[in-house]
Amino acid sequence: MNHIDDTKQRLLDASRKLFADNGFDGASVRAITRRAGANLGAVTYHFGSKENLYAAVLEQLFARLADQVTAAAAQPHPARLRLEAIVHAFFAFFEQYPEAPRLMIRHLASAGAPPQAAARQFRRLPETIMAVVRQGQAGGEFRDVEPLLATFTLASQAVWFAVIRRTIAAMTGLPLDRPEMAAAMERHIIDVVGRTLEPAKAPA
Question: Which pTM does this prediction carry?
């Protein structure tokens, strides 16, 4: 990675954390460049504007999540095991980027739909998961349910747990922020989705 690319990535990493903590308006260009160890004009040089930097942060974040989910879905395993791998990919992603849920919630609360480039990356998620569900149905592994609803069940539980776990832990004292609870929730989601998709048993 050359110096220019390194500076650009440092700006993305720094602003991702600051946008998550403070929102778009609360994350100043001065704070971003200071955290990135870059000069004050670096945002304009590499991205053109703070708005473009924000869009690039969302695009990269969603692309990384989509890449991990796509890799899990591409494993040479039965559909049930690939869905388990997808659930694990969500949890691994939020462990790697703990600021991601806060950034997503802040964006949805303040701006609605993400920028077009970020939305394209985000759309890869349901498309990938629905494809695995359909493949499992075609192979007789899964019952005939609406793939979109099964996808929503899987993804929404994983994302919601990542969003609320630390807040609920702080408010109630419940140990949701502990690593073992994340592992337990991952197993729970896999069990729920598996039972939802399990083919109906033939009458005895």
Answer: 0.87
